[in-house]
Amino acid sequence: MSQTNRLDNGGRIDRSRPLRFTFNGQSYQGFAGDTLASALLANGVDVVGRSFKYSRARGIVAAGAEEPNAVVQLGATEAGQVPNVRATQQALYGGLVAASTSGWPSVDKDLMSVVGSVGGRFMPPGFYYKTFMSPASMWPKYEKYIRKAAGLGRVPKENDPDIYDHINRHCDVLVIGAGPAGLAAALAAGRSGARVILCDEQEEMGGSLLDSRELIDGRAASAWVASVLAELSKMPEVLLLPRTTANGYHDHNFVTLHERRTEHLADLAPSVNGRRQVRARMHRVRAGEVILATGTHERPLVFSNNDVPGNLVAGAVSTYVRRYAVAPGRRLVLATSNDHAYRAALDWHEAGREVVAIVDAREHPDGDLVSEARARNIRIITGSGVIEARGTKRVSAALVARIDIGGFRVTGRIETLTCDTIASSGGYSPVVHLAAHTGVRPEWRDDILGFVPGKVPGMTPVGGVHGKGALADALADGAAAGAAAAQRTGFQVEVPALPKVAKVREGKAAALYQVPHVKPAMRAPKQFVDPQNDVTAAGIELATREGFESIEHVKRYTGMGFGTDQGKLGNINGMAIAARCLKQSIPETGTTVFRPNYTPITFGAIAGRHCREFFDPRRYTALHAWHVEHGAKFEEVGQWMRPWYFPRGNESMHEAVQRECRAVRESVGILDASTLGKIEIQGKDAREFLNRLYTNAWTKLDIGKCRYGLMCKDDGMVMDDGVTACLGENHFHMTTTTGGAAAVLDWMELWHQTEWPELEVYFNSVTDHWAAMAINGPNARKLLAELTDDIDLSRDNFKFMDMREGTVAGVPARVYRISFTGELSYEINVQANHAMHVWKALFEKGEKYGLTPYGTETMHVLRAEKGFIIVGQETDGSMTPEDLGMQWCVGYKKPFSWIGRRALTRPDTKRDDRKQLVGLKPLDPKLVLDEGAQIVLEKEIRIPMPMVGHVTSSYYSPNLGHSFALAVVKGGAKRIGQTVYLPMADGKVHAAEIVSPVFYDAEGARQNV
Amino acid sequence: MLHIYCPYCAETREEEEFRPKGEAHIARPAEPEATSDEDWGDYLFFRKNPRGLHHELWYHAAGCRKFFNITRDTVSYKILETYKVGQKPSVVAGQSADKGAAK
User: Fold this and answer.
1) Separation between Cα atoms, residue A876 and residue A931, nearest integer Å
2) ipTM exceeding 0.90, yes/no
3) Searching chain B, which residue's CA lies closest to the CA of residue A438?
């Protein structure tokens, strides 16, 4: 059986290029130019999925983005899996493999059909919550199968090998949608010389013109499309983007366009000349003007069993017949509330298939299309509706009866029409989604029975999206708007002459959102409003009866408009039904908010190249290659890659760190300290600025001296620390924490620019300009002496906290005698591109001292032994200098009220039961406490019990011979000597003694040698 | 994503270059030590969160590194003006939202 529904003639498919594809494991044939949906319909595939909740058989309903049922899992390979692809939007290619997303384990027979048929009558809105949510512990088990059965797609298990790009673009006029209005707008704007981008989500541009019955300038509408595209493609400032969906409309005319470059060609992006092509592009467009030409989505009519395969929206029937040469059935019943849908019957009739009847809800339809149908002797049943479809896997009949729309009741006897296809049309809903992304609510218009976009600055709706869908209107509207938009962006152009189009007279449409049944909605066979989420008219009615009056609540209670559908097909019908139940108008009932993205988009396209090593930039020091060569294990500190430790042979981390710690205390070790933030401060008020910025005093710091500084926010909480050196009377060199560098520079600019602009001071980041190497240990002086002959290293001439400029290993250097280990220490700063030379020279001379490279872990242990804090580890934005025991670093007598000072006298910061920094000595000297462990005062654990603090740093010290920790404890300064307890998750309770945070060389003798 | 006119660069640039810094015109009390605890607490912690017109401090972090002010409508996100530090807004609450230099 091959392409039973394919017509012999017509369509925009290429019959000379047959393509084989696989759906649900079965092989089929289609043609180039098909979508997956048109190819499935051509092959007579009725059932494409199972419904979300009731597990009913579902078929293809629409031909575009609004398709609710034919949502497939695409991918011939594991890496190429893409979930939630609409078959109506997927171009067919040879070798395409797709499967139903819903309907596990198969669309013909599945577990959910048991739940659906047994539970059907008992599955009101909220069914899953009401049924499966208790006991809560079972939910994860239920959820797994519910999700699987519901059909939410699956992600690939293998890495996606494809490449995705982001492109930033600026244009004068962005036209979204290449139907008649969009093409006319782009042409008018393009002729002005403005930069124009025209995007359209379909394979071919042209929109409704590709299946239009109407003539433009006496030719097929598609011929006019071709001529316009030919002209546009010759314009150098015009960019045409087919297969490109405008997915998000953000503030100030920023629009994201998702362009699919290879998804119509193959499972994964093909290679050309050995280069893998870019699969998708995200164009980030900042547009001067946006022209919204997104058209309309046709609303299906809501009647009983309107979800049985064979039910389509009328316009889709026309599209399949005219564009794809597929008649998806034999015997058609058209149910409509308007003239426009008559096209479906006429197209069906021209395809040589039987039109059983047109069932028109209006008493006296009289437009041109109606006359044409009459002229063909097509039976028209007026004042009536299809109240129910029969069939399960395919429509077998339509039940037709006279209806009273206003009275919402069936008034006549039921006639059964045998048919296999029911096309329905309840009107046309403007595609307002994008405009609504901006936060502007759509506005209801009674004359077109639909919501139109609200007013968005810099945006002009054209064509069907604001009720000008008739061809002549759309062309005129688009041309005028395109010219006006170009003019507003500074280009001169006249509105182009309009092509000739015959006027088609259409009668007034009826407002029909739900067809009455002989039984009340609650008892009638299900009338589907949102087939993707299995929301029925009865469900909406029940929601309103249960007290959900806001449409937003109705939506959440029923699930209407959820999922990948986002309310494209059913939202207006649903709102209208809620309005009827609540006895109010549709605008009174409100509208829902639409959010990006308009249609599902892959994570690959969102991520672009910002993945793997490009996810976040990494920063490396000038010595990185040496670290790699010497086997360093790295730690990420902010964006920096810092050596964590340098294992030798098979050493564990613990062994390496113990060895590195001993080397520093016993001889000499070296740390790459280049990552510390470095800020140059210059200007005649630099010193005064430091006085205001830091908690301590800077007035008396002489040239060539360094000082440790603490920085607070104005709430008195420590935000950063570091050493600043005075290089000249008006020149300072500040260091900050590695992670805080950028924030501190911003902080300084903030205060200077907004509070103290009168101070003459300038800041600049020099972090990357200087490499810093800290040599620490009793042999540090001897080592450095071998590499410098112009710096006097003697104890009295180069004291602790002095800075000297000179030459080290033959290159200019600044040497700071500062220490983060408590040992004799020099921090050698050289120009970054000299760093490797100096580092290697140090190792050459240092071999005899056993010079040992150490990483951040050893640095942490050594500084903690000395009780030196790390901002961000001992502090968390709630610690004052006094909490840290650093009163010595607070200049209360400084004349200017420096940042943080006032707050330190607030009652809260003066409390003596604040958390204060202490040392902890575990009673078990081998036990390393967990960092973050909570501290309590009693050994007996009661829950709840007061937690008085937590461990901030914890290590084993080879120098001390026992484990130790730093912690913050309420009123800790007065608890020295007390034993506290640390209850752990495994039920153990550790005990530790509160001690001074300085564990090693409290008098500081080792650094003053 | 906002499109922001930097009054120092005299160019309209993408929001990604900027960082919001909260309510503008929060002046540090001139004499902190003479300020009551309550007033100091207000200065530190209390900020307006208006629906509608809002004066905000922004920072051209990936540009000229200058701080400046924006008058923005927090409902429509329309930027009504941007102006340098030290200047007063020309659009203030109570006026028509369309007034002022909408750069």
Assistant:
1) 14
2) yes
3) B76
